[in-house]
Amino acid sequence: MIDLHANPSGNSGGKILRSVSAYFPRPGFMLGVLAAMLSIFPAGAWADQHVPSEVEESPVEFDLRAVFAPDTGRVDPLVELSAAFQPDSMPLGLSSLTAGAYLRVIDNLKLGAFYRMQLGSRHDDDWISDGAGGWSWADSSRRLEHLIIADATPRVLLPFLPGEDWVGGVKARYLYNFHNGQQSLYIRPGLTYVYLVRRSPVFNLSLAYAAGIGLNFSSGIYSHDLYANGLYHLSDGVKLELRLGWNRTTWETSADGREAGLDYRYSPDIFRAGAGIIFTPDLK
Fold first, then answer.
1. CA dist list (Å): 57 to 40, 53, 159
2. Nearest to 249 by CA among 192, 181, 184, 170
């Protein structure tokens, strides 16, 4: 063992100190090594998950739906049951039951009124604090919400396009949510090609874009959807559909977040695939 305080021969103690210190890096070097080690890890590994962007969620979603929409003439009833899933553990996401009817005002215009019950819907204020420094999305899987919906759907034939059997339309849909009083408007322009054999439709191919606008919340357009849809006419009263789509929804600072001094906007991309069956019996 070396006694650093021993000084049997004048300045030999200083030599010993210098020789021992040579084995220990200088403070500046140690700080550099520490900074390099910290840079290896992402910031999220050291920070609390205070904003939604720091929570990992699946970017893929699947949805299924069944629709009963009989043709009764001028007034067409509609009942739709839908459910969404994520692939991680296939939990039930947003599910809804919608019922109402369309009124054909003129050949090119339908007006609709509907009532909807839904579970699993997510809103800005569902980003909550547990009071102990943790943040997460509230579990809304058992929260029943009630909505009323009104929409208008004008459509026109576009015979000047190649193939002639093209239909263009715009759906404008208003929603009021009794859970939180939110009002929103969806504008969805779309284009559909109808393949006919002996004047009977065999399949439809559609491309549409939808913009979601918060009328008394958010700061403008809060959601974008782009999707392609294929509809196969299995028989006169049964249709099968497949859908592929992309969604971007912007989440803004929640009530809990504002109380904690947070300020964020988070816009994740979700890719969706879906399938459905539509029953359209002729009841005229």
1. 23, 9, 44
2. 184
pLDDT in tens, the chain (284 residues): 434 344 444 444 444 444 444 444 555 555 555 455 444 444 333 344 578 876 777 899 999 999 999 999 889 999 999 999 877 655 567 899 999 999 999 989 999 999 999 999 999 999 999 888 889 999 898 999 999 999 999 999 998 898 879 999 999 999 999 999 999 999 999 999 999 998 899 999 999 999 999 999 987 899 999 999 999 999 999 999 999 999 999 999 999 999 999 999 999 999 999 999 999 999 98
Beta-carbon contacts of 272 under 8 Å, excluding residues fewer than 6 positions away, are 60, 61, 62, 63, 227, 243, 244, 245, 246, 247
Which H or E run includes 30?
helix 27-40
**61-279 placed in CATH 1.20.1440:** no
Instruction: Give the Cα separation of 80 and 62 in Å (integer).
Output: 17
